[in-house]
Amino acid sequence: MPTASHDPIWAWSMVAAATAGVIVRPFRLPEAIWAVIGAAALVVLGILPWQDALTGIEKGVDVYLFLIGMMLIAELARLEGLFDYLAALAVEYAGGSQQRLFLLIFLVGTVVTVLLSNDATAIVLTPAVYAATRAAGAKPLPYLFVCAFIANAASFVLPISNPANLVVFGARMPELTEWLRLFAMPSAAAIVLTYVVLRLTQHRALKEEPIARSVQHPKLGRGGKLTAAGIIAIGVVLVTASALDKQLGLPTFICGVVTAAIVLLLSRQSPMPVLKGVSWSVLPLVGGLFVMVEALIKTGVIGQLSALLHEAVAQSVPKAGWSVGIATGIATNIANNLPIGLVAGSVAASDHLPATVVSAILIGVDLGPNLSVTGSLATILWLVALRREKIEVGAWRFLKLGMLVTPPALIAALAAAIW
């Protein structure tokens, strides 16, 4: 009879329980606590050797560095007033129209996601959007939903648009021209359908009284200008690193730390306010997720999934693409897209799969998470940003909107990739 340390059911049960804790947040405890409890339980109960747990944690180093760099510069931008300055500009360009402000935020969110990643949209853009809507006298939630949904919908335009892209492809990352050939049309379909459905669902909220045409324009000091330069530098560095096929975590970390150090030294400020404002709990959350997926890998899940996918491809490549794209999209909402991306990447590496099938896997990993609040790390970071502003969005409320927005965009993107 198999023991707990050898029976895959035990590992799967522990991972499922921990994931449920992350999603439901019993006792309103942070998501990170449940991820860490799940990872620790796997080791303490002998289900996963501690050496393998460390291996799982090490796999996330590039992601940790990326997040630290982004969170540092986002908090610095908030403290230096950059968000308030950008908010005033957005309100002026909107010209008193809520619909125009909605479109403007959607377009800006698309650009930020494409060039800086979906996590940057959640970390950097969300506070700016909140500041803009507050300054304009508009209800913030319809515009904040834009940040959450475009962060995933535009996250496969370029390899750098989502850290999950690096996780799925790893060393097999296509060249930029090949990437654009595979994902340009699916990305366009996902972005357009996401906008159309979001706009329709927020129609009533955007028909209310006009918003302010202009607000008091705050002066952007030297620290704010340097922070803006740092954000632009991160964009340049990420695009360059992607073109050179380099990992993105360390360059982003260096840009964030250097920018923060320069601004704080020139203004003779203590680093403590910036460090206190960073949501450090995101790091153990990601680490716990990596440990849990390592447990799934060690229990043979990868081999079983590879065999099933190989059989599906042998029967019909288009059907296999549709099946794996939809299944992966659903799975990201159960176990988060980073660990699912690791599993999917391992499956893709174990078989010589057709390009359309691998493309469908990536679309499921990137776009599928728009269904729920815990589907992607970007959406979790978005929730953290909202909580800083005392705004709570429950899992059920997000799911109701996600069930309207996600299926049309996912189906259109898969159709563009497979056909």
Report on the structure:
There is one protein chain. The chain has 419 residues and is mainly α. It has one domain (8-168, 175-418). It is 76% helix and 0% strand. The chain has helices spanning 8-24, 31-44, 50-58, 61-79, 82-94, 98-116, 118-136, 141-153, 163-169, 176-201, 222-243, 249-267, 272-277, 282-298, 301-315, 317-335, 337-350, 355-367, 377-388, 395-418. Mean pLDDT is 86; it is low at 1-5.
- How many strand units? 0
- The radius of gyration is 21 Å
What's the SSE pattern?
Answer: HHHHHHHHHHHHHHHHHHHH
Q: How many DSSP helices? A: 20
Helix content: over 70%
Whole-Å distance between the termini? 48 Å
Task: Tell me what portion of residues adopts beta-strand conformation.
Answer: under 5%
Counted up, domains total 1
Q: Report the structural category.
A: mainly alpha
Shape by Cα distribution: globular
Low-confidence stretches: 1-5
Q: Taking all residues together, what is the mean pLDDT?
A: 86
Largest sheet: none
